[in-house]
């Protein structure tokens, strides 16, 4: 992200110059590269030739995921949600149930809770694992589009500020164990949405919000680009011969959001301040535990192939069970196994 302003002005005094330089650095630092469902459109570890390696779910030979000594979320995680725009009760219910399923015991295998066990393997510098518990926290509705229907990456932080400083029922401030999800409805456009990202995560600037809070934005692509961000339940226009799969919950836009939400929560837990678990040398452009598995949902997945999935009795496609629903969720990288994995892996 390159943001800021240009103009002619006299040279400021030294203290002011220092502040301007610091602000420029902050504003020019991009949020973590967002999730995209088509890994072959950009450089990705899963596109590398693996030779005789029988596993195509990422490359154990080429990936160098490292721990950079930053914090991970070892305390019980609370997900605070901002519903920006117009949302139907049924849509909210699907997303809430997915989040509640992350820590649900007793779900039929393969389960969302089983998927989270891979994320739990990541530790901080004391050896403490990421928390097993992920719970749904407070919610805030912004049904009147308080910051408009077109948002920039920085204005997203202003939306979060409005939610945590609201006069009535503000979202709680939880820097240590809170994750803040800004979910935009299908009539809201966010900078780079559909062209470069379907969602991204970062942390808020104290200069804008007043606190450093890990957050993620995910958009509903149903009207703008379902073939890009709701694949494989919708397909791109440039692939007319490809038939979309049937979604398990009957809402293609929300169905596409589920996997992006999972992607971002996994990365927020393992890299909340962009200084913990990632591959690559540049923390401004890290390759994180979900980035390494873009577009992989089952055994054999890679490139534009999702991998082996499951079919429900009504013909819907999924790869894991929640409390009462089925979901299609992207796998994440296991630094123990050194490849992408999920609860529906055939070799478990």
Protein architecture, described:
With 348 residues, the protein is an alpha/beta fold. It has one domain. It has six helices and 15 strands. The protein has helices at 14-27, 89-101, 112-120, 153-164, 226-229, 252-270, and strands at residues 65-67, 77-84, 134-142, 150-151, 178-184, 189-190, 199-203, 214-219, 277-279, 310-311, 317-318, 320-321, 326-327, 332-334, 339-341. The protein has a five-stranded mixed sheet, sandwiched between helices. It starts with 13 loop residues before the first helix and ends in a 7-residue tail after the last strand. It comes from Prunus dulcis (Almond). Belongs to the EXORDIUM family. Its main location: secreted.
Low-confidence stretches: 1-29, 38-56
Shape: globular
User: What's the mean pLDDT score?
Assistant: 86
What percent strand? 15-25%
- Main sheet characteristics: 5 strands, mixed
Q: How far is the N terminus from the C terminus? A: 40 Å
- State the order of secondary-structure elements, H for helix, E for strand: HEEHHEEHEEEEHHEEEEEEE
Structural class: alpha/beta
Q: What is the helix content?
A: 10-25%
The tally of domains stands at 1
Task: Identify the strand order in the major beta sheet.
Answer: 3-2-5-8-7
Number of helices: 6
Radius of gyration (CA) equals 20 Å
InterPro entries: EXORDIUM-like (IPR006766)
Organism: Prunus dulcis
Family: Belongs to the EXORDIUM family.
Subcellular location: Secreted, Extracellular space, Apoplast
């Amino acid at each position: 992200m390159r943001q800021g302003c240009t103009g002619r002005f006299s040279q400021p005094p030294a203290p002011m110059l220092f502040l301007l330089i610091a602000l420029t650095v902050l504003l020019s630092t991009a949020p973590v590269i967002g999730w995209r469902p088509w890994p072959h459109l950009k450089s990705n570890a899963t596109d590398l030739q693996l030779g005789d390696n029988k596993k195509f779910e990422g490359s154990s030979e080429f990936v160098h995921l490292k721990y950079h000594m930053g914090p991970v979320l070892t305390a019980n995680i609370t997900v605070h949600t901002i519903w920006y725009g117009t949302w139907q009760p049924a849509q909210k219910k699907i997303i809430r149930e997915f989040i509640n399923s992350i820590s649900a015991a007793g779900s039929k295998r393969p389960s969302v809770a089983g998927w989270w066990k891979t994320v739990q393997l990541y530790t901080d510098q004391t050896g403490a694992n990421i928390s097993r518990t992920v719970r749904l926290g407070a919610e805030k509705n912004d049904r009147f589009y308080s910051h408009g229907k077109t948002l920039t990456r920085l204005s997203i932080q202003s939306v979060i500020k409005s939610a945590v400083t609201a006069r009535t029922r503000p979202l709680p401030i939880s820097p240590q164990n809170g994750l803040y999800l800004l979910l935009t409805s299908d009539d809201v456009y966010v900078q780079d949405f559909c062209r470069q990202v379907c969602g991204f995560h970062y942390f808020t600037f104290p200069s804008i919000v007043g606190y450093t809070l890990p957050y993620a934005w995910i958009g509903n692509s149903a009207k703008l680009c379902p073939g890009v961000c709701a694949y494989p339940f919708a397909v791109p226009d440039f692939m007319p011969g490809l038939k979309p799969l049937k979604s398990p919950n009957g809402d293609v836009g929300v169905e596409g959001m589920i996997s992006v939400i999972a992607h971002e929560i996994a990365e927020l837990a393992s890299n909340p301040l962009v200084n913990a678990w990632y591959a690559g040398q540049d923390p401004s452009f890290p390759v994180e535990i979900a980035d390494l598995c873009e577009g992989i949902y089952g055994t054999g997945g890679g490139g534009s192939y999702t991998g082996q999935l499951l079919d429900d009795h009504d013909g819907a496609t999924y790869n894991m069970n929640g409390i009462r629903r089925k979901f299609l969720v992207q796998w994440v990288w296991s630094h123990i196994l050194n490849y992408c994995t999920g609860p529906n892996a055939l070799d478990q």
